[in-house]
Write a structure and sequence with these properties.
Length: about 260
């Protein structure tokens, strides 16, 4: 098992991608602290002795500190931090309110900042010999190029990309690796919301027609699954990726590799 003996904390753990990461980490032998907004009593449970759930709002510094304190008291160290919490507001910049803009940055950027900041002592404590610890942030291919109607989302993901590189430079000498995964179209509730939203540019197409047209612009003629993302996250979290840091790992079925008119 790739993650045996390791402790991980995953934010956004009840979302499509986050849940898949939690499931894979448990399969690989990690002790997993899964965090999300749902109260403790309403959160779904995994039947695994290594699973812990913590209710945590990533925008609340006190809540983040409290969660890290639980990890410190119970595990003593943290080997893996995965920042999968995120929101997407489907509007142009003209239609985006200041509150919506601030909320996007609070969750996607400040949330990543807060969890990284307060996890660092635990991540540092886990380093030893050839063993590194790993932060895995979530950027997006929208941090490189832009989908229509996602202005605030694109801006936040560009910020996460820059923060990831800075963290890797600052904390690499301490044995802490930092990378970002930049997914393209992944079959999640967020993607389905995009298909239903104004940003998708549906042009009167049915949802099925729109989904197929999106698949067809990919060289692989499909979009990804949460398991595809979890596979890459697991490798970056493992000791096999011990020399991987400071990188933005695009996972998009080849979408951004092509000249867009050549389909």
């Amino acid at each position: 098992m790739k993650l045996s003996g390791k402790t991980a904390l995953v934010t956004g753990a009840l979302g499509g991608i986050g849940r898949s990461i939690v499931e894979r980490f448990l399969t690989e032998g990690a002790v997993v602290y899964a965090t999300d907004m749902a109260p403790q009593q309403t959160a779904p449970l995994f039947d695994d002795k290594n699973y812990r759930y913590l209710s945590m709002n990533v925008t609340d510094e006190d809540a983040v500190m409290a969660a890290m304190d639980v990890v410190r008291k119970e595990a003593g160290e943290l080997h893996i931090l995965v920042n999968a919490a995120g929101i997407e507001i489907e509007k142009t910049i003209e239609d985006t309110t200041l509150d919506e803009w601030n909320l996007s940055f609070a969750v996607n950027v400040s949330g990543t900042f807060l969890t990284c900041k307060h996890a660092l002592p635990l991540l540092r404590h886990a380093v030893g010999g050839e063993i590194t610890s790993s932060i895995i942030n979530f950027g997006s291919y929208d941090g490189f190029i832009a989908d229509p109607g996602l202005a605030a989302y694109c801006a936040t993901k560009g910020a996460v990309h820059a923060l990831t590189r800075a963290l890797a430079c600052d904390h690499g000498p301490e044995g802490i690796r930092v990378n970002a995964i930049c997914p393209g179209y992944i079959d999640t509730p967020m993607l389905q919301s995009f298909f239903n939203g104004a940003g998708s540019g549906g042009d009167g197409k049915t949802i099925d027609e729109l989904q197929q047209s999106v698949r067809d612009v990919h060289p692989l003629r499909k979009y990804g699954t949460p398991k595809d993302v979890a596979n890459l996250v697991t490798w970056l979290a493992s000791d096999e990726a011990g020399y991987a840091s400071g990188q933005l790992w695009v996972l998009d079925g080849g979408l951004t590799a092509q000249v867009q008119q050549m389909r």
